Amino acid sequence: MLKIDGLGKTYKAGDKALSDVSFEIPKGQVLGLIGPSGAGKSTLIRCINRLVQPTTGKVWLNDLNITGLRTGELRRARRQIGMIFQEYALVERLTVMENVLSGRLGYVGFWRSFLRKFPAADIANAYRLLDRVGLMQHADKRADALSGGQRQRVGIARALSQNPELLLVDEPTASLDPKTSRQIMRLIVEICRERGLPAIINIHDVVLAQQFSDRIIGLQAGRVVFDGPPSELSEDALTLIYGAEDWTAMRKGADEDAAAEAEERAEAQKMMGAL
Ligand SMILES: Nc1ncnc2c1ncn2[C@@H]1O[C@H](COP(=O)(O)OP(=O)(O)OP(=O)(O)O)[C@@H](O)[C@H]1O
């Protein structure tokens, strides 16, 4: 379980990025974090893993107060937080398997990791994870030989190899096409269910967030202005989060995407019928 209590962040430059943010995420819940550019989504995620130092408030992961940890303790605590990134953050010249094993670096001693000598149990687990994300046959390929969707699957397997207690996911689909985006979101959600993992997904795409999250939090100027199930994310709530002008523009984009998708589907059906 993740508990955030009165979190605030004011950057040195004077920007107030977060104000009094509080919520809890139970095990297995997938939370979609939405809001306009500059609302504080990245700052919130970074305060949780302490890449950014919060100005006020506390972050608890199970019984551990992350905000109170010193450097060494923080390093150990970060093992429990799996990160998935927009640009995958893979080591391109290493194999898929080596990238997945790199998630174990926080656990394996320096020399073993330097020589890339991982324990047999870690290797067996990495194969299981590759199988789960559908990449078993690609284990020995270099990461730079994969498609975007496949790379993100490697990113997911690497995060899971840490055996995390929490997943922080930053724009996982921003570099992917709509169909691959849905596959990746579905995979993340299924995995969170299987493992009882709480997750926060910072996501620009409101439609995807609604489709796949158990719960949505909407940030506006550093404050939580919506917290509820996707079914309650009304036009009014979206206008509150994004402002009337931006939300109208976003909705138009989403409608165009949906229309393009329907057209693609109809084309495919026509082709199938002709065969
Ligand atoms: N390192 C920093 N120093 C000073 N101000 C910052 C820093 N990082 C972010 N900010 C400010 O904090 C506010 C929140 O930014 P943040 O990046 O968290 O928003 P965001 O919702 O993730 O935006 P986006 O969707 O564009 O990534 C903004 O006003 C931003 O200018």
From TrEMBL:
Residues 2-246 form the ABC transporter domain. Keywords: ATP-binding, Cell membrane, Hydrolase, Membrane, Nucleotide-binding, Translocase, Transport. Gene3D superfamilies: P-loop containing nucleotide triphosphate hydrolases. Its EC number is 3.6.3.27. One of its GO terms (cellular component) is membrane. CDD domains: ABC_PhnC_transporter. One of its GO terms (molecular function) is ATP hydrolysis activity. The keyword Nucleotide-binding applies. It comes from the Bacteria. Residues 253-275 are annotated as: Disordered. PROSITE patterns: ABC_TRANSPORTER_1, ABC_TRANSPORTER_2. It is an enzyme of class 3 (hydrolase). This is Phosphate-import ATP-binding protein PhnC.
